[in-house]
Amino acid sequence: QMDGVSGLEEGAKAVFPHATVQRCIVHLIRNSIRYIPRKQWSAFTKQLKLIYGAINVKQARQEFEKFKTDWQAYPGAVSVWENNFSHVEQLYNYGSAVRKIMYTTNAIESVNSSFRKVTKERRS
User: 68 or 114, which is more confident?
Assistant: First the structure.
C-alpha cells in the first residue's frame, strides 16, 4: 500500500520484484480533486466511488469510461485516474472485505504515528 511518493514503487519493486504495489485510493482522490472546482467535489467523488466501489472489474471499467466522458473538461483530474487505473483494477483480485481495507493507507499511517509518539518519549 503506497501513497504515490516519487520513486517509492520502483524501489519496492527493486527489492521485492514479485510484490503487488497498491496505490492508496484516498491519495488518488486528493491528487485529482485539486483540478475540480470546489462546488463540484461532491459530484466528482460520488462518481469516483462508483468506480472503486464497483462489484467487479468489468463494472469498474464501465464506470471509468463514463467518468472519463463526464469529466473530460478537467483533463488533469482524469489523467490522475488514467495513469493509475491499473491500481484500481488490481483491487478486484481480492474480495470486497479486503478491498475496503486496501482503499487507504490510513491504518498504516496510524500505526506509524503511534510508533513515532512512543519513540519520542524519554522513557522509551
Answer: 68
Are 1 and 108 in contact by the 8 Å Cβ rule? The answer is: yes
Res 9 pLDDT > 80: no
How many domains is the chain built from? 1
* Model confidence, pTM: 0.69
Task: Evaluate whether residue 2 is within a structural domain.
Answer: no
Structural domain for 70, as ranges: 8-120
The answer as to whether 58 is a domain residue is: yes
